[in-house]
Amino acid sequence: MQLGMLYRLPLAVARAVLVALRGRLCALCWSLAPLSRPLSLPLSLPLPGWRRVSALSPVSPAGPRQEGDDDDDASLTPTSVNYHFTRQCNYKCGFCFHTAKTSFVLPLEEAKRGLAMLKEAGMEKINFSGGEPFLQDRGEFVGKLVQFCKRDLKLPSVSIVSNGSLIRERWFKMYGEYLDILAISCDSFDENVNVLIGRGQGKKNHVENLHKLRQWCREYAVAFKINSVINRFNVEEDMNEQIKALNPVRWKVFQCLLIEGENCGEDALREAERFVISDEEFEQFLDRHKDVSCLVPESNQKMRDSYLILDEYMRFLNCRNGRKEPSKSILDVGVEAAIKFSGFDEKMFLKRGGKYMWSKADMKLDW
Hints:
- This protein is 35% helix and 14% strand.
- The protein is of the alpha/beta class.
- The strands form 2 sheets. The chain has an 8-stranded parallel beta sheet with strand order 7-6-5-4-3-2-1-8. Strands 9-10 form a two-stranded antiparallel ribbon.
């Protein structure tokens, strides 16, 4: 078929013809390539609305590899990793996008083995998250991991994200010296709003507990950070005064994000659609707090692909398609093989300021 005739066909038919031609060409190339080293031809078809995906790249449980992956994945370094070692939590935040779909937690020595593999692959920062990290063995599990990463692996930065409700001072006495940053999730300074979101725990006051944790961080030389998810219930709130009084090293402000299978969709444990805000509303919240020097904003666009996330099985979670699609475990295939299917956008990670002064030794804070 001549090219001129092809472009006179309706666009849908033209695409179908090109797909067929491409498939036959790929099959021919595959048959000519050595089985141990398949060819990868960057065939470019300049039709509107197309996104190129290599048909010859291996497909993992994380789905098809995206444009540019063949060139970039081999050089990916797990500089900063978020290890969600548990999905269990004592809160029920309505927008949670890492829900309690399993109670599995790796044995401590297996978790340490994986962390050592990540260090060998170039990891500089590890962040332990959940679920709620302090649920497992009353905080002893995460404490031992923190100690291992700082004392044995000598990582520059070790951090935890927690809702703070289960942390006790004795934990700081035992493990505080090994922890660089403690991030506490706080979405509102109005306790009624916290209850609406799902952070209520009976007579306990989330905001009062936040101030207690801030004081312990000062006493035990741990950098204090606050994470807030901006959603339908807190988007109009003015937090300037409270954040400045707490004076965290960073105030990470996230836009409420939908992840299919986690907080939306048929197989989800949450229904977060009622929490979602528009990009414009998120920008208005940021503008209202622009004078807070520690503010670090993260829109959905920045957040989705710029984090390296490990689940409870130490599988990288690819969020590019709007749901968490796992790679194989690094414990089974190694870091280099697993990270190829992580969906990680290293450029966006750097653009959003993912690498910063994250060791408390370098922060020179007035404890």
